[in-house]
Amino acid sequence: MNTPFNPGLTGSxxxxxxxxxxxxxxxxxxxGSLRARLLKLNDLDPEIGPDxxxxxxxxxxxxxxxxxxxxxxxxxxPYFAPLIENAPPTGQAAYAVWRYLDIMPPEEASTYxxxxxLIEWHRGHLFCSRCGNRSQxxxxxxxxxxxxxxxxxxxxxxxxxxxxATFEGKALVGRQPRFPPDRYSALAGFVEPGESLEGAxxxxxxxxxxxxxxxxxxxxxxxxPFPNTLMMACIAxxxxxxxxxDTEELEAAKWVxxxxxxxxxxxxxxxxxxxxxxxxxxxxxLRAWAEDK
Amino acid sequence: MNTPFNPGLTGSxxxxxxxxxxxxxxxxxxxGSLRARLLKLNDLDPEIGPDxxxxxxxxxxxxxxxxxxxxxxxxxxPYFAPLIENAPPTGQAAYAVWRYLDIMPPEEASTYxxxxxLIEWHRGHLFCSRCGNRSQxxxxxxxxxxxxxxxxxxxxxxxxxxxxATFEGKALVGRQPRFPPDRYSALAGFVEPGESLEGAxxxxxxxxxxxxxxxxxxxxxxxxPFPNTLMMACIAxxxxxxxxxDTEELEAAKWVxxxxxxxxxxxxxxxxxxxxxxxxxxxxxLRAWAEDK
Lengths: 293, 293
Description:
2 copies of one chain form a homodimer. In chain A, α6 (258-266) packs across α7. The first copy, chain A, is an alpha+beta fold. Chain A has 2 domains: 18-123, no CATH class; 158-290, Nucleoside Triphosphate Pyrophosphohydrolase (Alpha-Beta Complex). Helix content of chain A is 25%, strand content 26%. The interface between A and B is large, with 68 and 68 residues.
């Protein structure tokens, strides 16, 4: 599939093979295959080989107290990740993992993102939200079933909009209090029930920065495994550059030119801010805008 | 906000007023306002006035056993919906509601969609998925808090891709077994953890119809309250018109021309299929393609 943007964490080589994971007999067959590969993890962190790729072992490496997540097939080879359910959910992004995402190819990071998101989802959803009883892993890790009330639960993916407000050749970047020093990025927020993507962009820009979008252009998307969002990047021209910041969400925000964005990417000594890392779609978005893509 | 597509169920007049719903004192103030309006519902169905608009009462109409969902503000007027938690989740789409969506203006349907989705989310999430204890409504209905383990839960929105595969001037429409007779629509599927929107379009087209997308163009989106999805419409040229159908997902599929889509919209006597209703984004998508927008 051609894409003009190629954001990080996209393009996994694995076929998710839904026709296998929904059938218990087919799952048992791939689980028993001598070719089956098991992802090596240190809790949620990946192991990375000298080639900057994920490291896979055989099923013999499976921890005693683990379930198996079926990640998909590449040719005849089934790929799994170990799921240890009884570990606490870790919650938000661990900057420690970013050094792995920095060196892994995007399609490898994409495979890792699916495994990590699924494991975190299971750990936060051991109990049925409908009846409160303990539920069980189903569909090779792509669901949970409650044997008490019969409810089926599927992994949650939270849609998030991440957007550049633009005005007269400048774009708006802001920083959250938790960001590393001098880092600025595009504004972002969760899409809520009863809202379109375009509606969420408009609402968030007004809530966080007091600017009114006149239109919204979708650019590209990426999965983000901290813990489980679908990041959708947009560009939104706004009516004015006058800002009213929500200081609980944003510590600071400023308008930057295309040249200032390019300087930030180059790490120029007089750069006005530190850009988001190449594997984050905020980077893709800023680059697409600065390079007029 | 200008949008070239204006899908159904978008454009609510209410300001969600996050600055109110996250503060208990501000919420109490709007809850106590004499101006406060309460949405009239028959369980999950809306009441519709002679003007095809939602019907609102005063707080005196609040059912005894209900919580209040804060839907937002219009000027000085706060809007609420009653939440009766202890009713079973209804699950999938009720075609009965479609006749209301048929006559309500899109921005009114958008307000209703938010209320309906939130109510269904609460009913399916009375218990904490992390520890299994009963949780409580928080943030004016935009969250639940578990007093046993401290977990905070936020309303779930499931991102879904809905797409037209295109090949040499034709587009692919299919029908699910649950569709009304002769109804055909765009193919659709959930975005999974670790997947981009473009990746989900590509995977679903291959899984359901055996066609390979060469690119993906995002068009527009809408919320869909049965129970709680974000529908994102895309157009995807594919390599060939040869189909391999997943007959568990699709009962039938066929390639249609732009003229055949326009005939279906017109309800022509020799129309090849019945088009999706105007308030569904599948309609917006088919129209955008057939009219070269």
